[in-house]
């Protein structure tokens, strides 16, 4: 299969940009959806505030990823966008982004491809999180994604829903 994933990102080349510090909020739940965002660098989490004061992380967008594209056809955001690592985002008014997609079928297909891959990854993560044991979760993650690059184990712990110490205990057990 030939990947056309990057075509939609070019829509932002002439767009506006914004730098955000860790802890900053890009938008809040119930804010009107006025822009489409592309994360150029850093990490931004989509979080749903819970009644107990905690936050449910729905997605973490990093370099090259769209942010809140699921809200593209909504009137208001259903979550908060909180900067986890200092970030730079490019953004366009929602209407301008949609107009660009209409002009470029390749860009539209690229966005569909990106979204489909994200749905696949989320479905895999759901299945991994259903497993009870850390060892089973790690096996499933490694089977799907392979061994992470150096420094990537932190992301694995988050991806399989365990604490870093729990993951490192499992890795130490496997080395013995």
UniProtKB/TrEMBL annotation:
InterPro entries: cNMP-bd_dom, cNMP-bd_dom_sf, RmlC-like_jellyroll. Residues 10-75 form the Cyclic nucleotide-binding domain. SMART domains: cNMP. This is Crp/Fnr family transcriptional regulator. It comes from Sulfitobacter geojensis.
